[in-house]
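Quick start: what a row looks like.
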Amino acid sequence: MMYDLAVVGAGPAGSSVAIVASRAGLSTLLFERERPGRDKYCGGGVTVLARRYLKECGAREVEETFEVYCEGHVLVLPDKRLLIDSIKGLEYAMVRRSVFDGKLMEIAESCGAEFRGGVKIIQVDPQEDHVVLKDDKGGEYRARYVILATGMREKLLFDLGFSKLRPKEMGHCWGTEAPYNVNEQVKKWREKFGFTPIFLMFGVVTYGYFWVFPKANHMNVGMGTTLEESMKYGKLHAEGYRRGLQTAKELGILDDTSPFKVDRGWILPAMHREKTYSPEKRVVLVGDAAGFVHPLTGEGISSAICSGKLASQVVKKAIDNEDPSLLAEYEKLWWKEFGEELFVYGVKLAKLFYSSPLLLELGLKGVMEDEKATKLLSALLYRSDPRAGEKFYKYIVKQLPLIAIKALKAGKVRSYAEI
């Protein structure tokens, strides 16, 4: 059988492709090398923007997997000062990725996509008017177009001539998601802060942060930095994690740190690939495979879903017009939707805050004493404003002398929470 579209990888990006393409009437084959219920290690926070994109894709049903809603965040500065904020009406939806991703696969199937779990595609062979895919057990499949949503498993991308990311263009996160008495811990948080927060702790790693994210009966505790920085660490991976846990306990964020041992990790991109499509090979890249992760925050679910939606629409247009060259529109679309925000202003912000530990500390202290800067940073973290990074960067640069002075006067705790 000749399919209109084959999608390799059934994470948020790949499943979003399959949902949108199937709803548009394309015969769609969705491959996942693991079985449903497989896990991917990340914080598992679904932002305001990601929820908007899910709705636009027709996947709002996935909200039944949302376990905890966090109305705001607490930022722990390198010297353990606290910046507390929440914006009324906004929240993070916390998910376990095994459940969230599994539900998206289920929705894709219900929309008409043919799902093949436990199938590992090892070769993508472009022909004149279609593509042949081969699995590791000798199976062959044909489709007019292919969308790769393979995350950072890059062999298929290299085989097709897509560029390789350098270590400084990638990130590394590690930690665990362990059973925990979340209800009791959240109760204490609410008594202290007035809402249920996520925690971002800076200074534990040179570039990046340590996080604590609550789920229904689990706590996700991890940390992330650039791959280039991580490669220098060695034993510091475990030692840094222990330091983060110790700080979390000292500050009353975690009463019990004994359940948390590093047992998983993940590589993620921090820059888009030089090219994210190929008309000649009838291939489009989405999500992590394309490099669509925010360089400052590491958030990638929103751009994964959005890129899946855009890629599906472009492939549909190419099929309708029998013109593979129309795949070129994909790059223009994703750049307009989130490219400048991530890869111009996101990169500038990452350089500004992560260029040195001193700049990170001074920058966060200055933000801490400036309510507008804090609210702009919060909008970036929530992803409630698709242009929040641009606005935050421009404000910081314009107010830099004043913010630097404010940094010298920073208090121990500052809250702008709209409780």
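That is the whole record. The first helix runs from residue 12 to 23. The two ends are 57 Å apart (CA to CA).
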